[in-house]
Amino acid sequence: MQLVRAQRPEIASAVRRTLAGVNLPALPVTLRFWDGSVLEGGAPVVEVRGPEAIAYVLRSPNQIGLARAWVTGAVDVPDDRDLEAILSLRGSFRIDLSKLDIARLGAAAVRIAGPALLRRAPVPAIEAPRAGRLHSLTRDKAAIQHHYDVSNRFYELVLGPSMVYSCAYFAYPGESLEAAQARKLDRICRKLRLAPGERLLDIGCGWGSLLIHAAREYGVHGVGVTLSEAQAALARERVAKAGLSDRIEIRVQDYREITDGPFDKVSSVGMYEHVGRGELEHYTAAVHELLAPGGLFLNHGIARLHSDPPAADTFIYRYVFPDGELSPVTDVMTAMEGSGFEVRDVESLREHYPLTLRRWVANLAANRDAATAEVGEQRARVWRLYMLGSALGFEEGDVTVYQVLSARDGAPHGLPLQRVEALRAPACERTVRTRERRGGEVPAHTNGVPHR
């Protein structure tokens, strides 16, 4: 739909007159309209670039309308500092309009921007399809491919050379992302007590970074599964380049389709969020069946902390993680215990995730032109908004991220008496420290645990 641009000057004045009789709180932002007029409010500036913005919000006066206006560029906030200030208001600024108020605003919008507003504005092409039974194999694969099969090069630009798309583990706030991601991978290997010859299953293996680290530094044989064809292709290339093709297999496969257990250890990093709250028991039961008695299972995932379950239709669901759902960590632990696991260790990494996300936001900003060339303007805008908003969510305690280590019943788990001993891995420690020195990073200790 091509909307006719309004020729009347001073749109801000018309909006001001319309809002005078509507029960609205003080405007926390300043609006700059497409004719150059400005409606003064709070310090952050929002650019309303055309009547299309009004059309989206008029048709969907909720988060989806605003999301569509943002994705298409009809609404923009060019400065990241302004965008962060606006996102920080999301919990305090509420609009409660009566049906009469909505009708008045709609009529005024038509007067300002023309009758074309009465027609439905086009839905952005990158909005996720939502067809089929929720969390069926087919729908889950479509949801994963929507997010991950966009461009491996795009993810390289955002994530950096580690190609790790989950929370890093920082020794100090100014540490490099690469060093922190290497520390995270090693921490997972230590918690799992990986040993040469063991068989490791990595559910949601991404681009293979954890498996490569585990095979190279701990001598395991690994199987990684992902539903993303693009991820699998690059993961296999990276495995081959590392000379580990004889020890690592990458599959395009759902965890529910794996039949060649048992595995000695199982990791799942940043994957369970795609499982769904109603599927947690099935997920942990499936892992239990794939794991040898006494084997260890580490689940690393985002969890709701104080926030309520989100509405069924949000920006994140439509544009970022279709069908993704977050659960309190207690739900994850309950599901584990109900499936025959004993929870052995729980660690919160909440403060580490905003540090990670802000590195990704900076990478996207530094590589904006190249990233946009890879995935298009709309998707680049989605990632900018979602990563910055997510950083604030972790900083404010709306959400968090946990590593939960559990042991399968049926045999001794072999974990040491002291937690510090569970994180010791002298052979790998030398390698990690050497790499950090070469990068100019020499922390006093590794993984937050002193070593004798």
From TrEMBL:
InterPro entries: CFA/CMAS, CMAS, SAM-dependent_MTases_sf. This is Cyclopropane-fatty-acyl-phospholipid synthase family protein. Residues 433-452 are annotated as: Disordered. Coiled coil: none annotated. PANTHER family: CYCLOPROPANE-FATTY-ACYL-PHOSPHOLIPID SYNTHASE. One of its GO terms (molecular function) is methyltransferase activity. It comes from Solirubrobacter phytolaccae. CDD domains: AdoMet_MTases (cd02440). Keywords: Lipid metabolism, Methyltransferase, S-adenosyl-L-methionine, Transferase. One of its GO terms (biological process) is methylation. Belongs to the CFA/CMAS family.
